[in-house]
Design brief:
Layout: E1 2-5, H1 10-22, E2 27-31, E3 51-55, H2 61-71, E4 75-78, H3 85-90, H4 93-115, H5 119-124, E5 126-132, H6 157-176, E6 180-185, E7 187-189, H7 198-207, E8 212-215, E9 221-226, H8 227-240, E10 246-249, E11 254-256, H9 257-271, E12 284-287, H10 302-308, H11 316-329, H12 331-338, H13 342-350
Parallel strand pairs: 1-2, 1-4, 2-3, 4-5, 5-6, 6-10, 7-9, 8-12
Antiparallel strand pairs: 9-11
Bound molecules: nicotinamide-adenine-dinucleotide and 2'deoxy-thymidine-5'-diphospho-alpha-D-glucose.
Residues 5-6, 8-12, 30-34, 36-37, 57-59, 79-81, 83, 98, 102, 130-132, 162, 185, 187-188, 194 line the site of nicotinamide-adenine-dinucleotide (NAD).
Length: 356
């Protein structure tokens, strides 16, 4: 049995779906169901005997202690977080609460449980913390990609809160010997991605005939990884990662934002042409830049490949086409999100033009 936190979100949801498709080991899935959590993502598991969903907070020490005592997991995989940079700029409090205080409380609950295990179970136990490349800050255009030894230089309230959580995880290993692993991954994309993030937002807006908002000059670079490759990397690190180590996860796919959106438009032009015969690229619209916008991220994932033999299965070209096709085939999933409080967020972030 493993305990997954944040398993109703984008990456956690994909992880749980893939895990239960690949093996028989049950999952306890603890998720608070914030605006980003969505049980529809887990709809195919409704009658699955190996999926035990619990709505709750990683910071609820009594609940987490009860779940650990009851289910005796051999590992905890922590996906739960506030994850959207723009929301961290308009409202940082929730990021401190979940990403910093929540991770701290989770670590305390896990430490208490782990300390009471018999020696063999203690040795086999793992706490895997899912983190981000954003903790390393922003790179100059020609600088080498982030290795695990890069200095932490977080620039947004989101990345600062993730950096704090990474430091706590490291400290629990160094101080108490808790058997931890940390992964720092680049930008994910794929099925079940909440349509506030660049790729699903632009697919959604393109199909809805709305502007595709590009911050600033659109030349900011991100390193994209198909979400199922991130999940396979986490499984591999859980299986064979060295205790206390950090593993960078990335797809060697650096792209400027404007190029990503133009690629999306070109695929949509093929897969579902606009009724007027124009390209979706006509909808591209340059808008005010994000405050403190990091210019470039790039991940050097060679440690993970060298030590654990992991490689991504998808290129950006194969993964992005699969993603567009998934969104075209799953418009209901998107519609159920975008009909609710999502509209308040887009109105606040982009103004009325994008929310028409
Ligand atoms: P997400 O926002 O889609 O999902 C987060 C999930 O956590 C949601 O289901 C939410 O309900 C849940 N949650 C939030 N607060 C909680 C709390 N206090 N207790 C329990 N559950 C809570 O995020 P995501 O994109 O799936 O990211 C998952 C993890 O991966 C995060 O830790 C994020 O920092 C990290 N990460 C994300 C990316 C990316 O590109 N999306 C890349 C690298 C790392
Ligand atoms: O690098 C990993 C990180 O990737 C994760 O830790 C975060 O949880 C995840 O949200 C993501 O952060 P980004 O800020 O890079 O992702 P986002 O999709 O929000 O933005 C990608 C780029 O596109 C970024 O440079 C900002 C830009 N952008 C974004 C939006 C939402 C736009 O130009 N327009 C937009 O409307």
């Amino acid at each position: 049995m493993i305990l997954v936190t944040g398993g109703a979100g984008f990456i956690g949801g994909n992880f749980v779906l893939d895990w239960l498709a690949l093996c028989d080991e049950p999952v306890v899935n603890l998720d608070l169901l914030t605006y980003a959590g969505n049980l529809e993502t887990l709809g195919s598991l409704a009658n699955h005997p190996g999926h035990h969903f619990v709505q709750g907070d990683i910071g609820d020490a009594a609940l987490v202690a009860r779940l650990l005592a009851e289910h005796q997991p051999r590992a905890v995989i922590n996906f739960a977080a506030e994850s959207h940079v723009d929301r961290s700029i308009t409202g940082p409090e929730a990021f401190i609460q979940t990403n910093v205080v929540g991770t701290f409380r989770l670590l305390e609950s896990v430490r208490a449980y782990w300390s009471g295990l018999p020696a063999a179970s203690q040795a086999a136990f793992r706490f895997l913390h899912v983190s981000t490349d954003e903790v390393y800050g922003s790179l100059e255009k020609t600088a080498p990609a982030f290795t695990e030894n890069h200095r932490y230089e977080p620039n947004s309230p989101y990345s600062a809160s993730k950096a704090a959580s990474d430091h706590l995880v490291r400290a629990y290993h160094h101080t108490y010997g808790l058997p931890v692993l940390t992964t720092n991954c680049s930008n994910n994309y794929g099925p079940y991605h909440f349509p506030e993030k660049l790729i699903p937002l632009c697919i959604h807006n393109a199909l809805a005939g709305k502007p595709l908002p590009i911050y600033g000059d659109g030349q900011q670079i991100r390193d994209w990884l198909y979400v199922k490759d991130h999940c396979s990397a986490i499984r591999r690190v859980l299986e064979a990662g060295r205790l206390g180590e950090v593993y960078n996860v990335g797809g060697w796919n650096e792209k400027a934002n404007l190029d990503v959106v133009k690629t999306l438009c070109a695929i949509l032009d093929e897969e579902q042409p606009r009724p007027d015969g124009q390209s979706y690229a006509e909808q591209i619209s340059f808008v005010t830049d994000r405050l403190g916008h990091d210019r470039r991220y790039a991940i050097d994932a060679s440690k993970l490949e060298r030590e654990l033999g992991w490689k991504p299965a998808e290129t950006f070209e194969t993964g992005i086409r699969k993603t567009v096709r998934w969104y075209l085939a799953n418009q209901d999933w998107v519609a159920h999100i975008t009909s609710g409080s999502y509209r308040d967020w887009t109105a606040q972030q982009y103004g009325d033009t994008l929310n028409a």
